[in-house]
Amino acid sequence: MSIIFQAGCTIIVCYSCLTMSLMYAWPSSTIKLFLSTNTTLNRQMDENEIALFGSFSSISAIFVTPFSGFLLDRIGRKNSCILFSLPQVIAWLIVSISLRVEAVLGAMFISGFGGCILLLAPVYVSEFCQESVRGMMTSMSMISYGLGILVSYLLGGCLEYQTMTYVCLSMSVLGIVMLWPLKESPLHLMKQNLEEDAVEAVAFYRRVEIDSKVITQEINAIKRVLSADIENSPEEESLNPNTKTKEKISKWQFLKKSRSTRRALFVALTLYSATMFQGLVGVQVYADPVFEKALPNMPTTISCVILAIVFVLAGCAAAYFMDVAGRRPLMIYSSFTAGICCVVLGTQIHLHWGPHWITGIFVYTFCIAYNFGAGTVPYVFGAEVFLPEIKSLVSMLSMEWAWICNFIILYIFTPLVAAIGLGPVFYIFAIVCFASAIFSYYFLPETKGLPVDVIQTLLVKN
């Protein structure tokens, strides 16, 4: 019952990722409408406005992500999730009451302020779930993100423009309402010296009585993690158990002193780069025009919906295998498979050596391979590898870099396809995929089922 309850709480937290991706994928179903002479807006969008329409949310996410790291520690995980779910409500409200191009672009920019929910949700979930299911539960954020893309495609293909905006507005409000009953992260409460509240939170998430032995074990584990001495490296700490009490230092000093944290940050930044530049994010946001070129014989709405369904199902399978096969093998083999798919897609679209159904098969296979590795592993790794003292700062830096990469790929995707063609673009994605596999083989440690202090030790040894 404890795990089932944690899964339910995880779904509620990760529902915020779903509402975020509703507007993130919205351009796919509306680009052709906004470019047409029969547009529902006050005028047609030009090509530059379309490029901004797809990437504007990434710009605002870049600006707000540094503040999310500060707020994560100041107001807590739960309140941060509530706060950064509000931009989606505001954005959909603007879109539902105004048909001006400037208002739509402004709404996309405002929605990006909630983009750091992809940082907050995995951190929150990883801190209230037990280690045996931590990887699976943390992966739920990307499953919810994929579900949001699926819902966005379905609503865009089945509902009228105005009706869709009202439905998405209602869904965004619901996400905020569901977060209220949850408890704060026990680890955050312990950092604030609120041990009684932390005990209640552990009892809430473990579904046990406050005087249970499970509570004592969990609280002691949190205390051990919070008292880890990283002024010395983890292996030096283990050789010197009588290390003096550590003095309070700033997060930047902590990062400077801790070799394991710097290595973890380096790996996390590289993995997030792989997440963006392996290319599926561009295919998702511009799915309608991409499938119009890649699969001209199939209605684009059906192609987009199938892509989203495959993304969600692959995400569910990846969440299961995350705690079975481990993070490292998934990242290595899936990136290599994704690279092969990109090579096949590039040659097929570029040279037309086979029927169109081959393109469809390898697009969806690419989606599956991507989701097993770069689409999931970086978010799990980033949520579980950093010590509590530094987690908010380095998680913010990682997500900031991810949004910068996200903006770059979305802004250049359409001009790049126009300049060199869709086939050669997949060649570039293939290079990134193979490079990701090689990097993961040499630098990515296995973190499955390990507490954060042990993971830090592995990073130093590597």
TrEMBL record:
GO terms for molecular function: transmembrane transporter activity. It comes from Papilio xuthus (Asian swallowtail butterfly). The chain crosses the membrane at residues 7-26, 50-72, 81-99, 105-125, 137-155, 161-182, 264-287, 299-321, 330-351, 357-381, 401-420, 426-444. The lineage of its organism: Eukaryota, Metazoa, Ecdysozoa, Arthropoda, Hexapoda. This is Sugar transporter ERD6-like 4. Residues 1-448 form the Major facilitator superfamily (MFS) profile domain. InterPro entries: MFS_dom, MFS_sugar_transport-like, MFS_trans_sf, MFS_Trehalose_Transporter, Sugar_transporter_CS. It is found in: Cell membrane. It is a multi-pass membrane protein. Coiled coil: none annotated. Keywords: Cell membrane, Membrane, Sugar transport, Transmembrane, Transmembrane helix, Transport. One of its GO terms (cellular component) is plasma membrane.
